[in-house]
Amino acid sequence: MEEKKNVTVETTADEYSKTAVPSTARKSFLSVLIISLGYVFVVTSMQAGSVIGVSLSFNSMVWAVLVSSAILTVLSCIMGVIAAKSGLSFGLMARYSFGQVGTWVPVLIVAITTIGWFSIDAYLIGDSAHRLFSWMPTILICILAGIGMTITASKGTKWMNMLSNIAVPIVLIFGFISIIRAFNDVGGVAGINALVKEDSITFAKAVALGVGSYVVGSVMFTPDIMRFAKNAKTSIIVMIITIMVGNSFMVFFGAIGSVVYGDPDIMGVLALQGLLAPAFIVMVLNIWSTAQGCVYSGSMSLSSVIKVPRNKLTLVFGLVGTILGCVGFYNLFGSYINFLSSTVPPIVGIVFADFLTKYNHGYTDLDSLPRADIGGFVSWAVGVAVTFIPVLLPSINCVVVAFLVKVIFNKVGKKQ
Hints:
Hydantoin permease, mainly alpha
């Protein structure tokens, strides 16, 4: 009896990184929603909004934001439903679709991405603090922020939820106040259209930018949160609110801030509007809520394939990310984000195909899986290739094609 208790405690402390989340450990709707919203407060969304805002008329910009968010919502809901039904993290899902050894490929993508994002977030807190208050040293604040964000992430979803409970409402409230001020300053929609008179990029390109800004979160981070949802319905509602409201808000803010003030960042805009104290508070909470999610998901995925406790990996992720933030890794990360927008979406189609046609009666024991699932990698390669064909919306096309190819592989495999 005592042995069973110890196993349970160890699994709980490790956030179920190597096993499915049991029904007894599922969280409330509000708890999952708040954590999920904390994930979408990302700099890349505001930067994508910046490009969209200065490149499209107001009406086209709004539609581009909504369409890209709708695509991300579909991807998130698929991954969220599978996670809620199975209780699996992304790392474990990837093992079923790519094999025992093959899973290292998507897991390493998650690891590199999350460390990269964390390094940017740590640096941004240091740099932004110095911009607001010149007496604050950038590197020292970067280090202190990295340590703090690592600590909250290492404590798991409980501490992440506590921080998000504070961060989410504050960021949304001051963000809406700022947008209203921006519209007043520029003269409303007419004023924005006067600044951006014609579209300088295609609508499809704008949608692709919007999708690329958070596609990694929709595909790879969503399962890590939604496996704690009590049912599939909860995960769908949470992801609709998270993406259609939270993500759209961040992209839209970046667009308006860039057009009106020449600054897509929420902190910069608030400072320009004379709201210096709120700017500092919002900046810290906005970045912190995202960064802790990056470290959590990165360590969660890597912990699913190596025999190291998640909390120890979290410390390693935080240390490496903080060092990279201090030495300027953020200058090299932009091109990698573009690479992700074409390589990550097809994974949704592959995981969904396996869920419907291969594991429709339940996921098998992990030890029974092959070293590599060739069908998974072929489907992924075909899906990535489709993203380079400029027909309709490539970000949707690649998911559908990867799904169909994997279904064919699964059907052929069953017959053999």
